[in-house]
Amino acid sequence: MSNEVTPETYYGPSFAALVDSDPQVAELLVSELDRQRAGLQLIASENQTSPAVLAALGSTLSNKYAEGYPDKRYYGGCSEVDKVEKLAIERAKALFGADHANVQPHSGASANQAVYGAFAAPGDTIMGMSLDHGGHLTHGFKVSFSGKWFNAVHYGVDPETEDIDYDQVRDLALEHRPKLIIAGGSAIPRLIDFAAFREIADEAGAVFWVDAAHFIGLVAGQAIPSPVPHADVVSFTTHKVLRGPRGGAIVCKAEHAAKVDRAVFPMMQGGPLMHGVAAKAVNFAECATPAYQEYARQVIANARSLAAGLGERDIRPITGGTDTHLSLHDLRGVGVTGADAELRCEAAGIVLNKNAIPFDPEKPNIASGIRVGTPSLTTQGMGTDDMTVVADLIHRAVTTTDGDPDHAGARAIRAEVTDLLASHPAYPHP
Length: 430
Ligand code: DSN
Description:
The protein has 16 helices and 15 strands. By secondary structure, the protein is of the alpha/beta class. The chain has two domains: 60-287, Aspartate Aminotransferase, domain 2, CATH 3.40.640; 294-423, Aspartate Aminotransferase, domain 1 (Alpha-Beta Complex), CATH 3.90.1150. The strands form four sheets. The protein has a seven-stranded mixed β-sheet with strand order 4-10-9-8-7-5-6, sandwiched between helices. Strands 11-12-15-14 form a four-stranded antiparallel β-sheet, with helices on one face. Helix 7 runs parallel beside helix 8 (194-204) and helix 12 (290-312) runs parallel beside helix 15 (384-400). Residues 45, 108, 136, 186 line the site of D-serine.
């Protein structure tokens, strides 16, 4: 390395340059940071990356075209980005105990497109969890490419346990013989039985794919069992509990490596976002530490405490609780819709999302539920006692305010949110 690296030599001038050249955008970056600092961030799929990850994202690697893979590029000048991508691949393989890793997907949806590209062709049958029971758009929902290009079959949850109905998964798999069976989704509070899915996939002759976007951070932190030994292929995002940059990745068995790589590039993507790949490398190293493992365990403890606290206040947790970073809650006990709850909470400084619950009588844009997650608050250092306070604030926001930020109740709750955040700030000022 030719220069000594200090914030001043490399990263320091970049924000100052933005302030000079485009104060309008600079101001918006600051006001978004203020927004993230000012509220309780409970969106289950969000987190707060480290300054190191942000520095890699804001780097000159953004300038480089690097179509292809390390040592096999279509452009010159790739010596340094080759080293970065090799580092990210090796760190991902070590972190997840995987045979192979592809760190180029721009997002979770791009990673999922590549998995379809590797293992299926338009017109094939695929099977995933239905979106309204906790699945994902890209698992065959009708308005997504995956629902348009494939014959999608969906399983759901058992009405009694509200957890995945494995008998139904097996029956549907044997009836429809899908090319791909997908486990994973965006609102599943419980652990998934990967061994059961593997057995069903083998019986049905299907490729077993885990979309681990939501919980891969808990796997990285060794807080829950890993899908990697069971699945043919595991796709994920890097920005949720994992706490890396916005992006995607895929790990798979060695036998699938070549077709997964070809499906990412050149089938689905062009040049990789090398600044994002560098940020993924930084993140994978951060996740391999005891501090991150402790964080992952605390995320779950906090989610359990929050779910129980809301349950005690008649905001019932679907499945009775959670094993992960998120819980899904039925608001019918307090007679408020998900849409109203989201508005009322936001007015009170609490950011969460409305969410359909299994067998929801409401339309998805109204919904009977909310989804809450603890990755961000745990990054801010909150613990299980704080979650009891947060549960009380959510309950009061949902039941005693009306969505108007000037409502006296909303103002009072916002003041308590500010007090709580004072001892657990996001991105504390140095
Ligand atoms: N939008 C993500 C989530 O919130 O779960 C999934 O893609």
